[in-house]
Amino acid sequence: RWTRPGVHPYDEITWEYRNAAISSETGKTVFEQKDVEVPAFWSQLATNVVVSKYFRGHIGTPEREHSVKQLIDRVVNTIVAWGQTQRYFATDEDLDTFRAELTHLLVHQKMSFNSPVWFNVGIEDKPQCSACFINSVQDNMGSIMDLAKTEAMLFKYGSGAGVNLSPIRSSHAKMSGGGIASGPVSFMKGFDAFAGVIKSGGKTRRAAKMVILDADHPDVIEFIDSKANEEKKNANHSVRVTDEFMRAVEENADWTTHEVGTGEVAGTYKAREIFRKMAEAAHLCGDPGIQYDTTINDWHTSANTDRIYASNPCSEDMFLNNTACNLASLNLMKYVGPDGEFDVDGVRYAAKVTITAQEILVDNASYPTPKIEENSHRFRPLGLGYANLGALLMNRGLAYDSDEGRNYAGAITALMHGEAYRQSAEIARDHGGAFVDYDQNRSSFLRVIAKHREAAYALPTDGVPQAMLDNVRGLYDDVLALGEQHGYRNAQVTVLAPTGTIAFMMDCDTTGVEPD
């Protein structure tokens, strides 16, 4: 679409040499690398971030990367070599086209992979490629300590992790050998300390972490107040609520918590009081957030395997316990044409290329535990997302907090999500079949895809061009038909991540789905 045979994408743009430097608030230089080669249209901020975060090798040594060409080639050529070995492409010409188009997307800041790909691909033989992990824990000391170790290894390689701590018995529960249990909140302090010490990828950024507790856990009040009271904890905290809980809030009804394991009644509260506590704590320190368990599981493609209990640290990845998700984000402003109109076919094509690259990563990456590795191969979850939505809406003159803005965002999301699943179904058709546990989950999977199709047809026309709506609806007809015939290669394909560091790499004005 964007490249020509025999012409390298690098040869179509202007390059220049610059110095990359980062200073502290006091003006002291904390990082500097001179004479780095970057595209002329990249900002100095993008240069500083990419060179300091993603260039590999010790500064001052011949091994140190000194050009964006080296960085992108390291990642693209590794993915292409894996794709060739595993015979993803029908012809050598297709493979070369994929290499060129993927390179074009990255160098033109139209898309970026998540940080672990830039940190590790082309460096490690089996690189950790996923930014997001969902762990699990059982109610015994061995499992709790295993969780601490798993999280530590994830943080070391630049990833974040989330876990639902509700299986751990409450701080009022009696122990079999006498004494009282510590409870999940006390263990959170230890986990939190590790995240602060290890940081992310051994760099300066603090590791991302999420802890979740169900609304019917006996320690839910202590959990709600824990961050507001201390403000020293750095994890994200979320309470997991059901429709039943929310109805109890509306009706000012009682809400009962139950002991782990035994199911005995632990305490009874007014649901509205618990909800009020959550609101007050969140107002004070931003936490806890809320996760709507009933809705999440109603849109769960692999429900016949197990429920969804938790999320990754930023809550974009909602999937089974002991799973990983590698992320990539499209920069939406790069798909706005000179006439100001959005390039629908362009963003679909970018989604198709990116999902293919992410799918190739699955079997060639390393995973921190045998269970996460097994589930990554069984379900192959991916996380394509986007950034710069806020800027796109401003560019179109649509208020962020308006029905028109929401409708337009819905149509954009549907284009990306639909094309990602369309390509997933085509890869299932042409390469390796559907994911291992697809047959077991076929009914729940197709039910959710059908729900997406209904939602696409129900998208309001306010603020959305008719041609875009028609495209979205036709796309979901294809997605459902292809899936019914071939299944899907991936149990999950999209998320809406915050896109922190990679938003700077792509020179986005707004990160993720946030307003300016």
Provide keyphrases for this structure.
17 helices; two-stranded antiparallel ribbon; alpha/beta; 516 residues
Please describe what this structure looks like.
The chain has 516 residues and is α/β, with parallel strands linked by helices. The protein is built from 17 helices and 14 strands. The strands form four sheets. Strands 3, 4, 5, 6, 7, 10, 13 and 14 form an eight-stranded mixed β-sheet that branches. The protein has a two-stranded antiparallel sheet with strand order 1-2. A two-stranded antiparallel sheet has the order 8-9. Helix 3 (92-107) crosses helix 11. The longest helix is centred in the C-terminal third of the chain and has 28 residues, at 403-430. It is globular, with a radius of gyration of 23 Å. The two termini are 31 Å apart. The mean pLDDT is 94.
SS strand fraction: 15-25%
Low-confidence residue ranges: none
The secondary structure category is alpha/beta
Termini gap: 31 Å
Return Rg in Å. 23 Å
The major sheet is characterized as: 8 strands, mixed
What spatial form do the alpha-carbon principal axes imply? globular
Q: Helical residue percent?
A: 40-55%
